[in-house]
Amino acid sequence: MEFRILGPLRAGVQGEPVDLGGGRARLVLAALLLEADRPVPVERLVDVVWGDRPPSSARTQIAIAVSGLRRAFRDAGRARVIETVRPGYRIPAGAAAIDAAAAEELIGAARRDAAAGRLPQAAGRFRAALALWRGPVLDGLDRPRIEAGALRWEELRLAAVEEAAHVDLLLGRHRELIGELIGPVGEHPYRERLRGLLMTALARAGRPSEALDVYREGRRLLAADLGLEPGRELRELQLGILRDDPLVRPGTPGVPRRRGRALRWRRTALSQREASSPTCGSS
Q1: Which of 54, 37, 46 is nearest to 3 (CA)?
Q2: Is residue 38 assigned to a domain?
Q3: Is residue 15 one of the residues assigned to a domain?
Q4: What secondary structure letter does DSSP report for 225?
């Protein structure tokens, strides 16, 4: 059984879609998938479906929804997808493949590759993971508990976008990166690391005035909407572009200085890349 939650909820068996029924059953299934391999109490499922105004028959209607899902899975040849466990229901590990779990595994492998200096492999795995997202997580299932559970996967996606861009800068893909970052920066205008990565890619591509425009727009939004100034790293990046810092000059590999663990990772990854490629840096 395959479930897809990184976008509208979908289910299938060997590529054939499974009809999940109406909205109530889909909400119940979504709540179980967000807590995969953990028991989800019936009371929580009631809260997911009806909030603080459940009908007197709520527990019975949850049982009916689960029964309908089990019938749909059984008809598709998968009988043991939802277990009854105290105090509710569970989708056990091994009963289904979930795209979110696959994405998380790929991102973990990409991070290990990056830390070990295997930058092309890291870039490939980040891209494979990000390709699993088809839109907002559980799109169309508008309930507070579902939306709260989906936030974890949205944060993972954004972190992967940032880390993938970091790797791409190390690989000298600044020109290709510009188009890939414009959308995420527009969708998440207060996320300063994303904005800084776009500024760096633009400056490396020989477009410093546009990089500074990106900074000014971010500063304007922060001031107007939140009453804040950009953080120190973004301000330092702006100054680096104004001063024509070597790390933001066109064609420069690597990433602008970041302190602590991220900086140590960059230096390790870059030194390993240079050691494995004698011609690295000549362009």
Answers
A1: 37
A2: yes
A3: yes
A4: I
